[in-house]
## 1
Amino acid sequence: MKDILEKLEARRERARQGGGQARIDAQHKRGKLTARERIDLLMDKGSFEEFDMFVEHRATDFGMDKGQKIPGDGVVIGWGTVNGRTVFVFAKDFTVFGGSLSETHAQKIMKIQDMAMKARAPIVGLFDAGGARIQEGVAALAGYAEVFKRNVVASGVIPQISVIMGPCAGGDVYSPAMTDFIFMVKDTSYMFVTGPDVVKTVTNEIVTAEELGGASVHATKSSIADGAYDNDVETLLQMRRLIDFLPSSYSAGVPEWPSFDNIDREEMSLDTLIPDNPNKPYDIKELILKVVDEGDFFEIQAAFAKNIVTGFGRIAGRTVGFVANQPMVLAGVLDSDASRKAARFVRFCDAFEIPIVTFVDVPGFLPGTAQEYGGLIKHGAKLLFAYSQCTVPLVTCITRKAFGGAFDVMASKQIGGDVNYAWPTAQIAVMGAKGAVEIIFRADIGDADKIAARTKEYEEKFLSPFIAAERGYIDDVIMPHSTRRRIARALAMLRGKKAEMPARKHDNLPL
Amino acid sequence: MFKRILIANRGEIACRVIKTARRMGIETVAVYSDADRDALHVSMADHAVHIGPAPAAESYLVIEKIVAACKATGAQAVHPGYGFLSEREAFARALADAGIVFIGPNPVAIAAMGDKIESKKAAAKANVSTVPGHLGVIEDDAQAVKIAREIGYPVMIKASAGGGGKGMRIAHSESEVAEGFARARSEAKSSFGDDRVFIEKFIVNPRHIEIQVLGDKHGNIIYLGERECSIQRRNQKVIEEAPSPLLDEAMRKKMGEQAVALARAVGYDSAGTVEFVAGQDKSFFFLEMNTRLQVEHPVTELITGIDLVEQMIRVAAGEKLAIRQGDVKLSGWAVESRVYAEDPYRNFLPSTGRLTAYRPPAEGTHDGITVRNDTGVYEGGEISIFYDPMIAKLVTHAPTRIAAIDAQAHALDAFAIDGIRHNIPFLSELMHHPRWRDGRLSTGFIAEEFPEGFKQVAPDGERAQILAAVAAAIDLVQGERKRRISGQVVSRAVTRERRRSVWLGETQIELAVQREGNAIAVQFVEGGGEGRPLAVSSAWRPGEPVWSGTVGGKPVAMQVRMTVNGFALSYRGVEVKASVYTGREAAAARLMPVKAATGSGKSVLCPMPGLVRAIAVVEGQEVKAGETLAVVEAMKMENVLRAERDGVVKKIFARPGDSLAVDAVILEFA
């Protein structure tokens, strides 16, 4: 009997060795951890339970039946906890067949996807693999499709996070692309549909893998990645931090922990945040950091479309999504990239019942051919659409400019803002004074004195929050130093918010 | 007594004068420029008068505007603070002509001490010890050599009109005198348009010691002990103390009496300072007299218990000095640090901008230790480019010099400033410096001890242990809360290991940490075993910028700023990123490749279509990460482009006024 029990441990030990010590060493030499080491860092100590450890491929072509079979078949799956909360995981094991996807490998991923859906808990995929296992042909391709389908079915039900920690190419890229977040490891990961060799053959373009799809590209230019970190350890620890912000499913509600921060905390320094000169920028992140609990803010897409800031914070210990125009970059203007970035974030929050706080300082949409040719109308519409379809609590605070159509877009009262505040420094108008006066008083353009007088008149009349407040478009004008207290109160009041959209098959977001 | 006075100054000194005036029941009037609309001194004063644009030459330095402000508000007297108009004879006279009292010395005394050569002549006449030298104009090198021989080597050849080290030569021999004389003269001519030079004895390893004097309009003059200000960076005082570790009672009395003699000789009738240069052999020589309140006056106030501003106001109002020389008792020791908005790691470049955090240490007296912070700023305020970048003067007082230094070091640790760079790490490192602690000072201290400038200090010895213990305690507090998150699997509690690996930059420290009641016990792992437990206790909560508590019974304060997977800690001059890892995290982290911090790309691109407002660098210029490269205006907003890394500007493609498309190359690094 003892022999039989010991046999299990021996088989487990063999499976844990993956592709063997030489491959593990090679992985380490590249600055990367193995699949099991990664899972070990992601999960609470001793909490990971592995499934399908003994699964092997069943391929017979091209000598696969004669070659070595390695238990696990290039992917490690299972579940564990992150600070006590259930999380499912699959991690590609680069030391086994380069992490390539076979039929059985795909079946393992599907199994854990299905379990996560049943258990209604987040799933994290750790990618580091060489694509489809070519020897398996269409069986591998079919496997991909099964995984993709499950990604889509799970979308909006449970949070899905993809972490790219090595190569991720071809068929492998589309599963991450359909998840909620993609994070990358700088310098050791890349993601593309077709690699440098194919690119060279087809277009004669010579690029490196890093130039084509490194973290530096996807976190700043393509917006594929939501963030990038220096190495495996840093990345996995940040994933633990992110999971602490996320609900387990769309119906679970946001996680909560006891806050060390006082919800009545006043920040007198916010009274001087807005510079005297209306054309001087200021850092909207200072406002976010002084409003959230303990200054703890997890930014999403920090390096892309920096003219809008998106990310998670907490108020009174509960997760809140923040969207804020950033006057430091491009004056906080809304362009195509910023609109897409914020729209996707708003939809994630709405899907998972995370309340949204919006800080507005927007001079309008970015003019120009580049933007118009690039479809600014449709991209801007995505953000408008996303906010308009929200049923989560929406609290908005206008700090300075809210000009033109951008005022409407940024969670205005009319598109669904529940509580809309403005600072006394807010300027809510169709446009700034100079432009407005030059249109309204076109005849006076030659007369500098008259224009100056008209401008002053316009500024006094329109560039304040009070016209909007008089009409009830703004619920209250608040002192900047009381922003945290007021927002906390509004969110507390809105905790029981119930709003419904009419029955339909699904909406038709302007893609 | 006056009913209302005006303070013709700004910043901390204006605030400091207002505090005393308020205590005396006198109303105050502040003046302010455009840049100071929201300044602290304006909100503290009972009344405020706007006196023009930001540049001082168009506001704080315009005599007529100050006089007009007095008339408009009915201020009966003016306190000038220091700097600006404080030592302008014309200002004192203009006020007198307008029937307004100047809270400072009479114009004759100001004039008499205003000229370097004239003041030395007056000092010599009053039998004040002056540096041996020749005050007359020197005709040729032969005469120079003759004079030098009389004085004794080494000698210094100096431009009469000079300042800031220009036209200054030190000579150790006759040939050096001849050569130095010619060069000093030509430099003086080219720098100041005045080729007169003089020669005096050069004091080796000099110390800067000054005597505070106080006189009234009735001929009474006393001295209030000395201050030592030898810790200077490029002739700018950094740290001051009172008393001086060099002086004994006899020397103090001798210097004090000479200072009083000089003050009496010029009919001095307010607070003033007689500056001396002192040799390590306790010889001392008159340097100059400052006819105003000194920046560093608080150290004297703390050891004498006398409010100098109050005394200035009383004597200006015609009161007789109520303090006699015999009443002046020096008690304990006071140390002052000047906290500046400057980056100590980048050659002390001024750093301006918004103070996103400003939390000075608590003021007051506890257990014989006094902390005082004279400041003119507040959280959310602005450090403007127009004026002196001083943020605060942090002063500590204790029974002994070492206790005052330790109190200063602790207060600096508890001083949280963010949004701009500041010199607190440098000041903290100075407080840690053995030569400073021993009182072995000279005006060359900083140049000698920091010849390469100030660099990041690696954590060592006790500092490293305290940093590691606090980092582990912070991590424990955060970890405890993480385990209280909602939605946990019921069946299984998350286990916590005691062992941690604390990484302070490159330094790895192994320890065990666990809660023990209200405290946290930290045991360093030494030679495989765990050492004696160190109790770490603090009321710190996540989000607070300053951790303060005790480590092994010793009071500790340090700055805490969250970073990715860790926190930046700042303690006793050490600024370091701390990461607290479990065993398996540390093992994995050791496998991670070390990456050099690099910025992206060699070219600086225009981030948006816009108009180039300014290019802040020139080709060939060396720039540090964070330095301003260019300003681009778009959407009517100014965007400042900063260097992402250190480097040398190779080529500049854009010029101010250029209209650029997005991604147009503005400049390129080598």
Note: DSSP finds 19 helices and 17 strands in chain A.
## 2
Amino acid sequence: MDKFTTHTGRVAPLRRSNVDTDQIIPAVYLKRVTKTGFEDGLFAEWREDEQFLLNQEAYKHATILVTGTEFGTGSSREHAVWALKDYGFKAVVAPRFGDIFRGNSLKNGLLTVELPEAAVEELWALAEANPDTEVTVDLVACEVRAGDRAWGFEFDEFLRWRMMEGLDDVALTLRDEDKIAAYESNRDAWRPRTLPAQV
Amino acid sequence: MSRTPHEAEEMRPRTLAEKVWDAHVVRTGGAQPDLLYIDLHLLHEVTSPQAFDGLRQAGRKVRRTDLTIATEDHNTPTDNLFTIADPTSRKQIETLRANCEEFGVRIHSLGDDNQGVVHVVGPQLGLTQPGMTVVCGDSHTSTHGAFGSIAFGIGTSEVEHVLATQTLPQAKPKYMAVTVNGSLPEGVSAKDLILKIISITGTGGGKGHIVEYRGQAIEELSMEGRMTVCNMSIEWGAKAGLIAPDERTFAYVQGRPHAPQGEDWDAAVEYWRTLKTDEGAVFDKEIVIDAASLSPFVTWGTNPGQGVELSGNVPDPNDFDDPIQRTTAASALEYMGLEAGTPMREVPVDVVFLGSCTNGRIEDLRTAAEVIKGRRVAEGVTMMVVPGSAKVREQAMAEGLDQVFTEAGADWRFAGCSMCLGMNPDQLTPGQRAASTSNRNFEGRQGKGGRTHLVSPAVAAATAVTGRLASPADL
């Protein structure tokens, strides 16, 4: 996974809340069997509207999406994260995220940061007043900065470390393979199996 | 592992979910989250191809093929069993078949007796049992919590992780109780109850919590009804939802193909009986609901929390105190093409969809058939009935339910996810309005520009007859 330490870029101020993963990428775009190439599905229905934020020249090159609360609720589709990444977003800021989406984002090097409504409102206002405003999302300092404004954010220490190192979860878990094997040797024999016993 | 060292040490009163959690901890403590063992991993064609690719690239295999099972559901056609018209859908299904073949995973493909929506197939095979951890790359995995298991949806990276290690690192959740006192009134179903709960909590109210549904009304629900309730836990943001197993649960599991047998059955039931929240256990949060106050419930907006009694009206956005809710409601009404103040019973529909992992089980089909029997689907309304699995379809046909539906003018289909998410050709056209027994009324979910009202199977059937949102009592 890509490492994430800090990123500076422009903001796309998406003034919407409850943006579920069906809005981020509709199901018809989920048929690919690859992990890339989902950028055309991002906000596909909204992008048909010429006035939609990402169709405006001023926000076309934004790399930080700042959006309303409950972003990424609904379906577990990791394609939502891939679409945001493929489109060019490096970070998403919102007051609150859907749990599965948040987990998925952090496994793909897309930083999701929770800031209070008031901070999100300020960022929206800044980006609307001047789309060229540069904003920094800093995972090292756990801080979002814009000009002389700065907002701290909380971040789970383990997830932060994993993100900053770009570590692969599977490899981390397999360090404890002996514990997995020990657990398996103690499982009740009556637990259901989909196939005849393998081990 | 039901009597783990953890349990021997843990004498303090615990909730049901804590007991199941503790019994699956492979590793705990330190900076990393708990590592949980996964008892059952369900796969389908949409969220698995990239996970198998990841295994291939790393030279890994599936650690426990005997705890893994795949079915085809999201993309499958429902008008026939074998012709998948869309080449990308076909490719995705072919990819799943090839991956299962290569990695030795059991699969139930189109045409197989056990094909169907992944969350219908697990319980019907008896693979879903009390006290398990169940995951799937699908957010409605919470369905399996109805058996007293911790079951939740995961992303594709996590699918790969489970395939490779049979475990998942999971941050400790918080625990919530939803206590539903009293009995549901006649004509009020599990679907009405869960829609009501979501309207109270909003789409994020359960965030970070594993929720235990309990109380008299929950105990009185059938297993199908309990699955409907747990299924929609994700719609209010909960990590998972579960219900303590009881005699009804054991009776449902007993005799199914993968249920324990003989002495194993006795050992299993002995353990399962311990799976309840201890006296004095503390929840982080509790919501209490009076079942007697409930009535048929439907959604008016574009998220599952935007619901109202069928007897109510489309709300006025100006009546919401919270500014975010106000704007969300206003844009929802615009998308839905609804006027504030319109009685819900006056909202006309074009399509009725009966099916999905929420309401595609045999009891749901029976309920709807009972309402529609001897009646006709209204002029200009299309009703599509999609059983949750090939087995449900077979059972329904054995009971003559297909006849009831087709005689009423409804379309009797093959099993799959179908119009719940509109990945196959079963989609609404722009502006079409549906009464749907599925779980999400998101913009465009059931087809671009489609407008969805979430309803129970009984309301779906009555609505098909009148052409407007209705309950059986209106007929």
Note: Chain A is about 30% helix and 15% strand.
## 3
Amino acid sequence: MGRSQRADPAGLAGSARALTQQRPLGDRIFQALALAAGLLVLAILVLIAVATTSQSTSWFSHEGITGIFTTTWDPAHNKFGVLTFLYGTVVTAVIAVILSVPVSVAIALLLTEVLSYRWARPIVYVIDLLAVVPSVVWGLWGLIVFAPWAQRTIYAPVAGAVKGVPILGNLFGPGTGGVVSGPSFFTAGVILAFMITPIVTSLSREVIATVPVIDREGAYALGATRWEMIRGVVFPHSQGGIVGAVLLGLGRAMGETIAAALVIGSIPAITSHLFSTGYNMPAVIVNQFGESSGVFRSALLGIGVLLFVLTIIVNLIARGIVARSMARQRGA
Amino acid sequence: MATAVTKQQQVDLREPRSWRSAKSRIMTVLMVIAFVVVIIPLGFVLYTVVSKGASAITGRFLTGDIPFNVAPVTVGGIWPAIVGTLLITALCTVIAVPIGILAAIYVNEYGGNRLLTRIIRFMADVMTGVPSIIMGLFIFSIWVIHFGFSGLAGALALGCLMLPIVIRSTEEMLKLVPDVLREASYALGASKARVTATVVLPAAMSGITSGVLLAVARVSGETAPLVFTILGGTTTPNYNVFTGANNALSMLIFQNAESPYTGAQGRAWGAALTLIVIALITLVVARLVTSRVARLSQ
């Protein structure tokens, strides 16, 4: 679409061909440089995969596929199974998404459907501010301020209340030894939720903004209230895009390192009790890398490779969904 | 008389108060509550950082060397970490921004709608989702193993993180430059490179600058890529970014956060405030530049 509108002397047919061959050297060099810069993105992505994988081969050959997917992580005895950390990554990311998505979508609706531009703008600034607070500051606050407070005022009473209740007791009851911990799966999930809220909000807002005005007006003209219009028009139109935004948030939450490393408790465990300490993939890499060597280090790099593959898959699916739903909106 | 007429005309056409409109109102209130739920913790974080950080910060704190963890917060300071953060962020900007702008120029000016262009654009989007820790591991594997820890390695890792953000924001800005400008320059016989360098880029410059500053603000607080590339833990400033381990504010906070000593924790809070102030200054400058763009384009 942009191609025919754009004045591109090199792209003209017929008599302009002579011009193409006469393009000055400087122009061609500039184009080559620009192309090289663009290709660098692809090169970096390929290099990441190749370089980190080649550093982790000794882990793969030491453990084999069956050894990698076990729960035993014992560097002293050369046992490097990744399942515990995979479990922690999935659990914390899912908690983060469950907490963050309703809030993010609600804020996006507030910004697009309720408030005028004048009031929406300062709110966008505030949400952006969330993204500027560095991950390590969230971690520091989570560890020193939030975790002890949450343990006293939320986790302990809740755990006491649901103790023995079938499903709730398994999730929110006291963990092994009858204790609840400040740094825990749940604390990590909460902190991650704050960190992914800006991106989920801004993507949802972009998607919701593509809903055709005429459809909204049609719904209002039929006498729909604002909420009925949102349910009847906005949600069906932007469903795909919002799913994509959620997946992108999930990818962010899985890879977020420093905040998780500080508040997850850093004790490997597979348990359904969300208020007990755990460990996840990025946290174990960053915490144990300094003291590692040989197969140990290779295993940590290998966990990095798994994390890379996981987040790339999630991102590819998410971006695909977002791109497709945006294209459909434009086509409609 | 006049009042009677207006009274007659004021027929209330609104839906009588019903469950439907009440439900709509409840949902609106819930949306506002969602926003409040987000700003309360944000306010708490900022309040804690400012109150705990401000009590630590003095002139000597900002300019002193980093002492042992047991030392109280009144002894020494965080200057080596400030130096590291500023130098590494600057170096990473110098590396990533020109490449990012060039790549954006390829995608928007030269690429057309070719498959390769669409792949590059899509992959730049995907690359923004690659966790920052992976960039650190990547630079560790291809650089640190051979050349050792250095500020440059940290800048390369941060650069990988910054590159896709710069590409996407620059591309958005280049898209906004009207084609009329390009066509007028071509009509004067200018080559494409010349048009891009002397017409398109200057027209989009303030938008690009604001995008770059936002990327700088995001990257300056990153920790995970630095753990594997600059090592941290140095107690005296290392002004040479090309050799030797370096330190950074984010690294100092991370290493001090789990320390049991109040002095070390105090230094972490002071460093956190310094880091947020640096990021905020960058953000405010970016907003000023953007609002100038908005005014100019009106």
Note: Residues 1-7, 9-18 of chain A have pLDDT under 50 and may be disordered.
